[in-house]
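Q: What does the predicted 3D structure of Alpha-amylase look like?
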Amino acid sequence: MINDLWYKNAIIYCLSVETFMDANGDGVGDFQGLMRRLDYLSGLGVTAIWLMPFQASPGGDDGYDVSDYYNVDPRYGSLGDFVEFTHGAKQRGIRVLIDLVINHTSKDHPWFQDARSDPRSRYRDWYVWSDKKPANADQGMVFPGVQKTTWTYDDKAKAYYFHRFYDHQPDLNTSNPEVQAEILKIMGFWIQLGVSGFRMDAAPFIIATKGADVIKPVEQFDMLRKFREFLQWRLGDSIVLAEANILPKDNFEYFGDDGDRMQMMFNFQVNQALFYAFASADTRPLKKAMEATKPRPATAQWGLFLRNHDELDLGRLTDKQRGAVFAAFGAEKDMQLYDRGIRRRLAPMLGGDRRRINMAYSLLFSLPGTPVIRYGDEIGMGDDLNLPERDCARTPMQWSTEPEGGFTKSKKPVSPVIKEGPYGFQHVNVAEQRRDPNSLLNWTERMIRMRKEAPEIGWGDFSVIDTGNDGVLALRYDWRGNSVLILHNLHAQPAEVTFDPDIGEDGRQLIDIADGASSKADGKGFHTVMLDAYGYRWYRVGGLDYLLRRKEI
């Protein structure tokens, strides 16, 4: 069962081929460069790679405007290079997930060009058209403040086309059976080339009804089941990780009551409450979010993350909570984006404070689900706020102190490497941190190993333990007769807490597996633990002979 559900205890690493390493010398990352860094990822402890789009694209939205679903963008290499990469990853025990961008195409895609050229085109109904501009055309934009409408007039088609995203990304009519059949074909193609699954971009928009007469879109959840069935027939342990920023009441619609739809989803509810906890040292909304998202099918799993390639979306928080997060991490206007989020990387958001960065990642690894790490966060990379929109957090990986951070031999990389300030590649890079036993990189590697040795978090059930302090979070996980208990202090000052592990006689002994500061209960079964400012403790409950006591069922 563990092998079948590999994603339950995985470590997923998100990266863009374009920004990881350039082996061709043209200033753009490529698959040959990525191949050369597989040993680095293997050494870090990564078990799965999530690749951002690399298919052929005009590049109007960092590859999310696909113009050919069946080919690699020539800047990154060839299909042969991709297959060599997936083979190399498999040799190292690393699975590959790729972005599945099927809500829209590029307007340069041959399908759209054919569709706009003739109303009788076989592809005309693959897109969403209207003879007149709908009354609600100024509503529902994904990028408010940048995007002005969701309907744009096309002179050649003599009609308006629908685009939930930018105007160069016309939406596919995903209700069309022919479009659905093509989506299955796309998935089957990449599965055949070695991928283990997909991160489904904008899942709620894919399954929503579209059209000029649609006032309130209706989600077609059966579509998700169709995708799942197809994938599992082609490759039994392949998965879909859905991007769906939804309310907890809708979780089972995406997972399926019987776990027959999406295997994984990102937990946006917990992510937003987590940053409020960082800003306020108040874990109550975070506990509430975890409890609200706790129910899920046995085969389903949450993907947990701190930062990703988009803005930190705070739309689910209250106005007061959102204001607190903005004030703490993105007070200046150029740090904010789309009237709802922050566009910075994690390290500068936390002021470069190693105590806070360590605590944040320790907390990520201890949350109920599978951790997803953004490339460069393991060394504390920064952002370049001079770059537009989300590009500020998509700068090249910083490998060394060599020119352009060891990313490329070209003097003009397409995306500029961070060269100035405390986050410049001269100060933040892999090579120097590799040699420093106390670096963030080496700490992250040790933390990943510890997380992988605690499958209770990925597989087990969690309980929130009362510490009497809203700024100290205590979580206990139970699985197969074993338990781990993890404490985090979100305060900027030390905190002493007294608590009952609530697990009987085994709970009298807590063995620290992070730094050796173990704890024994008093006569009443309570533990008293002192935590440093932004401190944490990872405990094995009962002793280190837990593997001998693990139950098979």
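A (community wiki): The structure tokens above were generated from the sequence. The radius of gyration is 24 Å. Residues 153 and 160 are 4 Å apart (CA to CA).
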